[in-house]
Amino acid sequence: MKTSLRVFALALLLSVLVHLAMLGSGLLPDAVIELPPDQALRKIDVKMQALALDTPAPPAVPTARLLPVGPAGGAVAHHPAARKHKPKRDASGAQAKADTVADKAAEHPADLADASQPATENSKRAEASMPEAEQPASKPEKHAKAAEASAAAASNNDRPAGYLTPASALHRFPARAKLGYQTFYNGAMVGSGGLDWQQDGHRYTLEIRFNPLVGGNRRYLSQGQLGKQGLQPDSLQAWVGQEAKESARFDWSAGMLHFGDQGDKEVALRSGAQDVFSLAFQLGLKGGQLGTAPLQITTGKKVYDYPMTPSGETDYDTGSGKIRVIVFRAKGEDDITEFWLAPDFSNLPVRISRIDKSKRVELRAVLINIDGTEQWRLPARPMTRNNR
Predict the structure, then answer these.
(1) Phi/psi of residue 184, each to 5°?
(2) Which of 37, 210, 260, 317 is deepest in the core (most CB within 10 A)?
(3) Which stretches of 213-344 are assigned E, i.e. beta strand?
(4) DSSP string, 328-363
């Protein structure tokens, strides 16, 4: 009996020391998202929009804001009739100006012709020297900015309190994006992860990392082309530590998909095929509109046929605010893959899960950075101490 107690005490002490060492080394994250029970999906109220690839320079904006508790705020909505009534100009002044122009035209027709030509060099230089905020904008640009501001205000006003929204509306697909995740295995937090996305309008690179608290780090690299049809993968490669593992090679010219641990398996390559990670970004770029026919998807180890259509709407509850998401759920013979895409945050995947008969592996976002601007980060929870 005493021997058993000593063994138990030593095991308990060793466990405490290991956890303290991890805490001191920074391996344990500052904040942990509690895993609530799965939520029932609602009917989709807002249609996901396909996004343009060309991205403007990243705006210098603060992080995402949490809508306040209480009545929804926002810009004051003016009655449409109020926009129609504008102050009348001084008719006599306008008429006098028109008479002056008419007289000038009669006496010097050449001068009026010059006035209709493009601005002189002096006026161009004066315009170029104006501050950026004062530069005259074209009518389409003004309309686009007004539409974005109106959409952002409407989106915020329609959202109940407690939801996270970006500081400004995001209507374009990112040139760069970084997402930080926590990884869960059968409901237990087992490490951290990250995703890096880059595209230049012609090619893309997508890197995914899993950093478990125990065991080797795992990394995936998906690369390919971008065009009118969206993402067209060329390759997917996996590593555990420094050792190369499963891979996939998309030979579009020969119409063959090579995959497997040794890359020695092959099947006929179908139009629209994706790897399991590029699929999330193809869905985001195309606003979830990939048709109803099953898609050819590979994990590098296997090849699946998945119909990818939106299953419903729900909330990604971070414990520090909610993010509205559209869930795409694909059911195979013995597994389920889910992508939770956030329409307010450029349709990026804030949660990815894969479930089979023996395990449930999940990535849950704790950081969203779009084009160099940190849009949201899960706040660290303060450490508490027992006071005696």
Answers:
(1) -125, 140
(2) 210
(3) 218-227, 230-240, 243-251, 256-260, 265-268, 274-275, 295-298, 303-306, 310-317, 322-331, 335-342
(4) EEEE-SSEEEEEEEEGGGTTEEEEEEEEESS-EEEE
Bin 23: left if φ > 0, else alpha if -120 < ψ < 50, else beta.
Answer: alpha
Paired with 322 in beta bridges are 163, 317
107 Cβ contact partners less than 8 Å away, ≥ 6 residues apart? none
Per CATH, domain 176-377 is 3.30.2010: no
- Residues with Cβ < 8 Å from 89, sequence gap 6 or more? none
Adjacent-strand bridge partners of 66: 164
Structure tokens at 166: 């970006």
Question: pLDDT of 314-360, one tens digit each?
Answer: 999 998 899 999 999 877 777 788 999 999 999 999 999 988 888 88
Query: Bridge partners of 297?
Result: 274, 304
Half-sphere exposure of 208 (CA within 13 A, CB side): 20
What DSSP character marks residue 166? -
The rounded distance, in Å, linking the Cα atoms of 367 and 349 is 11
Single-letter residue type at 191 = G
Q: Report which of 223, 178, 220 is spatially closest to residue 196, judged by C-alpha positions.
A: 178
Indicate if the alpha-carbon torsion angle 24, 28, 30, 34 is positive or negative: negative
Going by pLDDT thresholds of 50, 70 and 90, the confidence category of residue 112 is very low
Sequence-ordered alpha helix ranges (H) in 116-138:
121-128
pLDDT digits (tens, 9 = 90+) for 142-159: 544 454 444 444 444 556
Burial class (CB in 10 A: 0-12, 13-18, 19+), 265: middle
Q: Is residue 29 within 8 Å of 366, Cβ to Cβ?
A: yes
Residue 385 to residues 233, 280, 316, 335, 388: CA-CA distances in angstroms? 50, 41, 30, 42, 9
**What size, in residues, is the chain?**
388
Kindly list the domain boundaries of the chain, sorted by start residue: 176-377
| Count of Cβ atoms closer than 10 Å to residue 300 Cβ | 23
What's at 195, amino acid-wise?
L
CA distance 207 to 221: 5
Beta-strand relationship, 360-370 and 310-317: unpaired
Q: Which residue shows structure tokens 């005490």?
A: 9
